[in-house]
Amino acid sequence: MRTFLDLVKKRASIRSYDSRTVEQEKLETCIEAARLAPSACNAQPWKFTIVRNPSSIQKIAAACLLPGSSMNKFVKGAPVIIVVTGESPNITSALGSFIKRKKLFLIDIGIAAEHFCLQAADQELGTCMLGWFNERSIKRILSIPRRKRVYMLITLGYPKTENLETPPAKNRKTRDEMSYEAI
User: What is the distance of C-alpha 25 from the center of its chain?
Assistant: First the structure.
């Protein structure tokens, strides 16, 4: 039986997908995991737009390219792209954000996105979260209203076989570098 820590170790940013179609049931399970994520004052300030249309994926992929670079070139090979937009938080969450001077809704969106990605990894699917894209282009492609913000994209698909055979080593800070025990 796999532990939660095993799942966390397995989850990686995948940048090469095979052409298999992601089954609807698996996609719905990932969406359900994101739906169940906690949020400040239960605001649930996210919307996940599922993009499967190959033409739309190609347009979104073009909006992710850094001119003169190969960065995000892999997006065009993703069978599914999830576009994560922010929704208006409820009044208590908005008030808490104002008082504490913290954008609580961004924390909430991150939690929901990671729930999605961990569920995907549990189902042998790969994901990669992206923050580099032309938001205006993405909104135009998907007819997202101007007042909405696109905070993140998540590519989703089956990793190419070589990704599974030799998972990349995780280069992380040591525990001492990233934590300490308060007195």
Answer: 18
Strands, E assignment, the chain: 46-51, 80-86, 126-130, 150-157
Query: On the CB side of 9, how many CA atoms lie within 13 Å of its CA?
Result: 6
Full-model pTM: 0.92
Angle between helices 135-142 and 54-62 (to 10 degrees): 160
Instruction: Quick: pLDDT tens for 67-83.
Output: 888 899 999 999 999 99
Return phi, psi of residue 156, to 5°: -145, 135
Tally of CB atoms within 10 A around 183: 3
Contact between 82 and 88 (Cβ < 8 Å): no
